[in-house]
Design a protein that fits this description.
Blueprint lengths: L37 E5 L18 H7 L3 E9 L2 E6 L2 E6 H14 L5 E7 L9 H13 L3 E2 L7 H4 L3 E5 L8 E2 L4 E3 L3 E2 L2 H17 L6 E4 L3 E2 L11 H14 L14 E5 L12
Parallel strand pairs: 1-2, 2-5, 5-7, 6-7, 7-8, 9-11, 10-12
Antiparallel strand pairs: 1-13, 2-3, 3-4, 11-13
Protein name: Phosphatidylinositol-specific phospholipase C X domain-containing protein
Pfam family, one: PI-PLC-X
GO molecular function: phosphoric diester hydrolase activity
């Protein structure tokens, strides 16, 4: 990324995050349902390879977690009997087993935290019939009782030290069903203004809506030709982009607002966050 790597209040594509919030959940009450929290996350969280058109992150998993990211978007393909991480057709040099182990290692070091993990099959032309069974086995073998695979939304106390699975399987329940979430994910962007207006409406809906429902707001985008990338926006535009989010956040450090063009936020309110986007 070379000279293009830089850090500002609106965008951070440097190798290490300025934010350092590994224990921000620890001081929150156990009784809070996760659906009452503002939780920052990343879209295509393990997409680090594939060049400018495919790479979605400049930070690795451990750096994201240390910065305060608590929602991971993990995309897998079943290849020769194992679940490997992919972005489209590009292997991301990681396996689901490895991602689970690394996340649980972080949670052992920071037991007051919880991580929501969306696990999906990446672009199946025909869904692999063994995907759900392999996912179930992987969660059992690697989870060690520290993976929440139930349908109901847990409280923070129930989720501390655990991975909370969000899944979109057709016939099995291995976590909170993804289709039960309130989701805003308009990724094919023709107008930045309409994109941010839609994201704002969804965040306002989250702030005033059903407190038992997880709201997930993606600010990720596939930019149409001619639209500026996030890091090319004027500074005053980038600051304005986040000013409304500052008014909506509940219990989330302000450092999380130093986001790039593709942040994900889950639950009550907040920005959808990816650092170092390259398209």
């Amino acid at each position: 990324m070379g000279a293009r790597c830089r850090r500002s209040m609106a965008f951070d594509c440097t190798p290490q995050p300025a934010a350092w919030c590994p224990d921000w959940m620890a001081g929150l009450p156990d009784a809070l349902p996760l659906s009452h929290l503002s939780i920052p996350g990343t879209h295509d969280s393990l997409s680090l390879f594939g060049g400018r058109r495919l790479r979605c992150q400049s930070w690795g998993l451990e750096s994201q977690l240390a910065a305060g990211v608590r929602f991971l978007d993990v995309r897998c393909k079943l290849v020769r009997g194992e679940l490997h991480i992919y972005h489209l057709c590009t292997f991301q040099r990681a396996s689901l087993r490895g991602v689970l182990r690394r996340t649980l290692r972080f949670l052992r070091a920071h037991p007051g935290e919880a991580v929501l993990m969306r696990i999906k099959e990446e672009l199946p032309i025909f869904p692999q019939p063994g995907f759900a069974a392999r996912l179930h086995r992987c969660l059992l073998e690697e989870g060690g009782g520290r993976v929440w695979c139930r349908e109901e939304v847990p409280t923070l106390g129930q989720a501390r030290g655990k991975i909370v699975v969000l899944e979109a399987l057709a016939r099995e329940v291995l976590g909170i069903p993804y289709e039960q979430l309130s989701i805003s994910d308009a990724w094919n962007v023709l107008s930045l203004e309409r994109k941010w207006a839609r994201a704002r409406r969804h965040l306002e809906k989250a702030a005033g809506g059903d407190p038992t429902t997880i709201h997930l707001t993606f600010c990720s985008e596939k930019l149409s030709p001619g639209l500026p990338k996030c890091e090319e926006w004027p500074q005053e535009q980038s600051h304005g982009k986040h000013s409304w989010a500052q008014c909506l956040l509940e219990g989330m450090p302000q450092d999380f607002l130093a986001g790039g063009e593709d942040i994900v936020c889950s639950t009550r309110a907040g920005p959808d966050w990816k650092h170092g986007s390259q398209w």
